[in-house]
Amino acid sequence: MLFEARGGPARPGKTVPTCDLRDRLERDGDAGFPSGWPPRLSAALDIALASPHPVWICWGEDRRLFYNDACSVILGPRHPQAFGAPGAEGFGPLWSRIAGQIAGILEAQVPPCAEADHISLAETGAGEGHGAQPECHYALSFTPIGALDSPPEGVLCMMSDVTQLRSDAQRAALDAKHPRSAPDAAPDADEDAGPRGEADLEETGRALEIAQERIELELSAGTVIGTWVWNLQDGTFTADERFARTFGLDPAAARTGLPLAQAVRIIHPEDRDQVDRLIERAMREGGDYRARYRTRHADGQYRWVEACGHCEQDAAGQPIRFPRVLIDIEKHLRVETALRRREADLALLLDATADAFYAVDTEGRTTRCNAAFLRMLGFNGPEEVVGRKLHDVIHHSHPDGSHYAHEDCPIYRVAGTGEVAHVDHELFFRTDGTSFPVEYWVQPVFWEGALQGAVCTILDISERRQAEDSRQLLLRELNHRIKNLFSITASMIQMTARSASSVDEMAQALRGRVLSLSRAHDLITTAISRTDDPDAPSDLAQLIETVMAPHIGTRPGALSAAGPALPIGPSATTSLALILHELATNAVKYGALSEPRGTVSITWTRNDAGLTLEWRESGGPGLEGAPTRRGFGSRLARLSATGQLGGDIRYDWAPDGVRIELTVAATSLVL
């Protein structure tokens, strides 16, 4: 129940120090306006308390009664206990007269009536001891309180004292039926009572309509600064007391009429053109008017207000009246501005993050995303994303190519159940149809305990997957190289042992061959570990220089090498290093490099078939033909050339020095 929520009405036995209800509400916290009160009731009661005329409100299903000080005379001994009491208890005998009318308005079954009924104080049960005169009569005007698209929440009633008007009208009717003689007649009574009563009644009715109009404007707007009416026929405006005091105007003058220029002066100079345009449109087209602008208040400060109203036109379509209400929106705009700033800061922060994210509601529709998400998926802007269900666009297939059903999507599942999800590897799809691997986390979003959807943070793991693939490839390659080295080393040991005549000879031969393999391995490792292009192969010229350096020593002129730049793969590098090492060893032991003036010339060419390398020695001991026995080095060189390199090696034992031709298949060069 509404009133119990605010502390309960006063009951017999409780005393109220003063009958001024405004003071009581301001002083007594539990009978004031708690934040839980409906805003329309608070606004309506604020209007009632400010009125010098009797105004009361009937609110809610139990028809609780709230009223202003002027109603105390009408309620008599039931005041102040009637304040907040159910209507039947608060109104007493009067309730039977008005209950049906109030019920019809609250149930939206009958329209409000400006002249709903006339009552006398005798019907209210008020006694003369409370200042009431039972012969007084009042006209009741009802106004529903509530939104336009829903049934009213309450009824506001203004009571107008029509006792004198009623008396004058009755006397005029009596005089018309039974004219009195001149001596019996009061001065001017016969000629003025009837017409004056009718004119006063018409004037009062018009005032009542204007007051009702203001109340309706205020109730529809909620918290207001005040109301004012521009009379286009004489260029003046009238305003209520609250409006006048807010802007430093004379309340009495505002009630009777002020020049329009005084209303214009309170509008900020920068906003006047905009206000003029909106007013002109309302005057031209008729109907509602709404504008936001700054006004200078009595303290000299400008504050934002919103003006709501409408322009009335006559039968010819000419504007005649412009009633308006001013709403204070300064605090609202500050809150709105702060929220927009926070929203902008949040958007800036989210757009600055490298990780992509997007949020969905419980139905899977996208509610927001950041710039990283748009870039990652290839969208041009948030307008292509917000409001859409994106599963069939970015998440429609599993990594194996099978269809990804909506009900299996972890993102939608979290949005519907509130469970947390983490997926370490799936595919997302860009707008161009290409896919990429992602890892993503999904968290539910709650507001005041209710599930609102989910937010998904996405990480593109393409580089991570590439690095992992490269690492696995490197491990396989390393394993292959080590196995090859062990295999070659084992073969060298076995063949060297068979051909060596002593342990020292075997040790010396093995040492040189293993060192040659080591140099080749260093060359391969250097090529693989290059940061600029780790996949680039070794170069043949570099390999020749590296392998021959220990055999040339301090005789740089003993070697000449010439040929085109030729990249070679790791396997070819290892095999060529062994062959070059064997040829250099023989040259040092038996050939040109055994003499101080001996030289070795190495040249090579590249064609479609592969590599052709020529080794020429000169300046060494004279040769009398091919050796009678082939050593292990020669056999190892031939095995490497025909096996690993897919080519051949041929010797020409010329008298002035050996000529050797080595061929390598094109397919073997890159291995």
Automatic annotation (TrEMBL):
Please give one Pfam family short name.
HWE_HK
Molecular function GO terms recorded: ATP binding; methyltransferase activity; photoreceptor activity; protein histidine kinase activity
Q: Name one GO biological process term.
A: regulation of DNA-templated transcription
According to UniProt, the reaction catalysed is: ATP + protein L-histidine = ADP + protein N-phospho-L-histidine
Q: What is its EC number?
A: 2.7.13.3
Q: What InterPro entries would the database entry show?
A: HATPase_C_sf, PAC, PAS, PAS-assoc_C, PAS-like_dom_sf, PAS_fold, PAS_fold_3, Sig_transdc_His_kinase_HWE
Tell me which SUPFAM superfamilies the record gives: ATPase domain of HSP90 chaperone/DNA topoisomerase II/histidine kinase, PYP-like sensor domain (PAS domain)
Among Gene3D superfamilies, the record links this protein to: Histidine kinase-like ATPase, C-terminal domain, PAS domain
Task: Please report the stretch or stretches of sequence annotated as the PAS domain.
Answer: 342-395
Swiss-Prot/TrEMBL keywords: ATP-binding, Chromophore, Flavoprotein, FMN, Kinase, Methyltransferase, Nucleotide-binding, Phosphoprotein, Photoreceptor protein, Receptor, Repeat, Sensory transduction, Transferase, Virulence
Q: Give the span(s) annotated as Disordered.
A: 170-200
Domain PAC per the UniProt entry, residue ranges: 289-341, 421-473
* PANTHER family (alphabetical): ETHYLENE RESPONSE SENSOR PROTEIN, TWO-COMPONENT SYSTEM SENSOR PROTEIN
Q: What name goes with this protein?
A: histidine kinase
- Name the source organism: Profundibacterium mesophilum KAUST100406-0324
